[in-house]
# Entry
Amino acid sequence: MINMRLAVISDIHGNLAAFEAVLADIEEQEIDRIINLGDFIGYGPQPEAVAQILRERQIQSILGNHEAALYDDAVLNSFSEDAFISLKITRGLISQQTVDDIQSMPGLLTLTGLRFVHGAPPDSIYDYIIFYSHYKLHTAFAATPEWITFVGHTHILGIYESDGQNIVIGNLKKGCTSLSRSKKYIINVGSVGQPRDNNNSARYIIFDDTTDTVKVYYIAYDIQRTVRLIHEIGLPAENARRLL
# Structure
């Protein structure tokens, strides 16, 4: 037990309007700590402003694949065309301090009973948990000692539950979900800056280990502000379309 209320965010992707709206909501929730699961750059038009807020508020961030691609061309070359172009443009939008911060980010974080990684446990930055077979999910659970692993990367909320024998895959819905200490979980917290599940609100979750619950929040924000900047900067039009 860590007796803490944690806000967990992921995949901000340079969407400052969404990030600011989420932070404003978090400020009303009596949170002890915020943890960012990576990909705060890429796709969106204001990565440096997002980085400055993360830095100023000392929000713990772990490495996402878009951060890794910033300094690893092998990762960048594996990207889709739009993601590749977006990262090339992003490199010209961020400061050297932000580059230095990214290069010092850990690939994972653990707290008592909790693990935080961008892609999939135990430590993958790149794997998409939604493509895991039941066998691979069993392997991931077995390799992870923590009670809960929080992931992002897919931009889609989800919950994976294991009792050691059976695995149940479910949708993580808006509102509160109770967890059992007799089971283990992988929880996908969705995306702040570019959700991909047919609802364009920003997403974040709060984990409360005093009640053993996860609560999903959907936050409205000024989407047109971000769309306008995407077009002005010359980022791929698909980046704007995905927000609408």
